[in-house]
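Q: What does the assembled structure look like for these inputs?
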Amino acid sequence: MEQFLQQLLNGLAVGGIYALVALGYTMVYGVLKLINFAHGDLFTIGAYLGLTLLASCNLAGLLPIPLAMLAVFVMVALLVALIGFLLERAAYRPLRDAGRLSAVVSALGASIFFQNAVMLVYGARVYVYPDFLRPDFTVSLMGVNVPGVRLLVIVASIVLMLGLWAFIQRTRIGAAVRAVAIDPAAARLMGINVDKIISLVFLIGPGLGGAAGLMVGIYYGQIDFTMGWSYGLKAFTAAILGGIGNIPGAMLGGLLLGVIEALAAGYVAMAWKDAIAFLVLILILIIRPTGILGERTADKL
Amino acid sequence: MALLTLSGIRVRYGSVEVLHGIDLRVEEGEIVTILGANGAGKSTTLLSISGLVRPFAGEMTFGGTSLLRVASHEVVGLGIAQSPEGRRVFGAMSVLENLRLGAFCIRDTARSEQTLQWIFDLFPRLDERKHQLAGTLSGGEQQMLAIGRALMAEPRLLLLDEPSLGLAPLLVRSIFETVRAINKRGVTVLLVEQNARAALKLATRGYVLELGRVVMEDRAEALLADASVREAYLGG
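A:
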């Protein structure tokens, strides 16, 4: 029971991170029908910017640690959002009318560019988040001692997801985002500026992805310039699992993938966790090729 | 001075020219219909008014201002709303959400609520189904929603692209009656139709398009009586 609870919470923490990154893939796919291959690298940039702000700029020395963390969290999200915005302007918007394959190639190029930029700026070695930043309290949950950082990661990712959900479902601009995802031309007839909505999506997705990068740094304590590839692949898988283009699907897919992985690591073997996670993906896609929630109501003629 | 004027509008898709210089005007308060066969350029004409298709030559004005340099999402703010061909309702959103999106450019929410009430009076069916997903509506209900959504923008000019497409005759009559009621409220209507007889009975004036050109323009009664129109569009 104790092992199950520990693995479940571990899975929810990792899954929350996958979900935040998956949201970036799925939202961009929703409005542009493009897989933003550079998204995983934006996540990496988030992890490195967080380290720079916390350690090198000594924010952690200037402010009480929880406050410094919160400030860095917001700053990283904003900075990575800005990079995402510029990425769309530079790499995708000029190719909007050029066909999908061109944009895909551009996305791959952007990914290589970012990964190498991080390597050149920071070097190719592994970086370690300073130990004193890691919240070291434990919480007793149903008689089980759970590391506080694990709970913080779960809470932070759920808060961000609920915030996004409320924004998309309850606000006028959120409705416009959904409308653009369904039918951009009809959205323009409503007076919606589609370019602005696409820019907004490229602010929100990378912002969440950057925050997730910071969370990985704090949670695992270790980052390297290729981390965007493995996390990006997992998050992309999560987006597919939930149904690409579907926002709740990305959240569900991320959490589910994290929990499956953690349980596989705990009950089977660490080395099998990826194999089992992908096996589940394959099985779900055989039964539901559109992903778990990826079913659009058919428009009648 | 006409509310809407098109003069010499030419449009091409890729290298194929589909509109070869359209001249057309709509006066305030009129119902004007554009008739023509499939591929005559009727929908393209409406799309270019809404800015979704860009003419490469010609001039187009609305209330005296040129539409050619207005971004497509700003056209609706000027007072031109369109119910597009194929309805294009947002299927995965509720009826109410669709209608509220129609008022995206309206800042005055209190007035929008009144418009919404008017639309529910025009189409009680939409009121009954306001929480249903638009994609689950019948074809006729989706058409009502597409028109209602356009009206939410409080347009001076309503562009209707084939509102009768695929609907049962009884429903067509009811939709056309509603269009008349909308017009009575002061909304000018430009109606594209293949159902020429019904459209001409409703309209004040009509244009006949053939292969991207206006080949005839007259009062609706005159077109209804015209021998060549009867033969080509009214089944003799």
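The domain at 1-78+155-236 of chain B is CATH 3.40.50.300 (Rossmann fold).
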